[in-house]
Amino acid sequence: MPQSSIQMAVTIAIVAVVFALRFRGMTRERRLRLELMWIVPALLVAAMVAVLVQFPPHGVDWAWLAAIFAVGATIGWWRGKLIPIAIDPQTHLLNTKPSPAAILFLLGLFVVRFALRALVESEASAWHINAALVTDGFIVLGVGLLAVSRLEMALRAWALLREARAARASVAA
């Protein structure tokens, strides 16, 4: 079995296990810790910067990466909107419940990513595309998607928290 087939099979198995576990835990609400939502995007941006510093893009590659980041950010905003956030009116604790639509959306993105990766890698030389740019593009797309989905959720959670505090203040007054 070729190395690429083994790598693809392992990746598909890991993704299948992760999504199966996510679907299994969809019935439970989870506490949304607004104060910690910045950590994952900060780590992702730091990792992205480390990769881009190690192999810096040149010239027009920066424009391609900016466009890819914009696509990832747009998809991330949509994904963030698919995740419901609820607030307890008494305690003001924020809760989120994984949305089946958000998880299916993410699964669809994985499928599209695998298809695009296979297509681009097989045609990279014919299209005169740098392999490092393809790799950087997938990294930038993922960072845009995950960081902006957290940003959208945080902005929405802050708005819910402000509304709940204002409602509580108006009742107390």
What does the model show?
By secondary structure, the protein is mainly alpha-helical. 75% of the residues lie in helices and 5% in strands. The protein contains 5 helices and 3 strands, in the order αβααββαα. The chain has helices at 3-24, 39-54, 61-82, 100-127, 131-172; strands at 30-31, 85-87, 94-96. Strands 1-3-2 form a 3-stranded antiparallel sheet, covered by helices on one side. A hairpin with a 6-residue loop joins β2 and β3 (94-96). The longest helix is centred in the C-terminal third of the chain and has 42 residues, at 131-172. The chain is elongated and about 70 Å long. The termini are far apart.
In short:
With 173 residues, the chain is mainly alpha-helical. It is built from five helices and three strands; from the N terminus they run αβααββαα. It has a three-stranded antiparallel sheet with strand order 1-3-2, covered by helices on one side.
Radius of gyration: 20 Å
- Helicity level: over 70%
* Alpha-carbon distance between the two ends: 72 Å
What amount of the residues lies in strands?
A: under 5%
What is the average of the pLDDT values?
83
Major beta sheet, strand line-up: 1-3-2
Report the principal-axis shape.
Answer: elongated
Q: How is the biggest beta sheet arranged? A: 3 strands, antiparallel
- Give me the count of strands: 3
What are the secondary-structure elements, in order, as H or E?
HEHHEEHH
Kindly name the structural category.
mainly alpha
Count of runs of 4 or more consecutive helical residues = 5
Low-confidence stretches: none
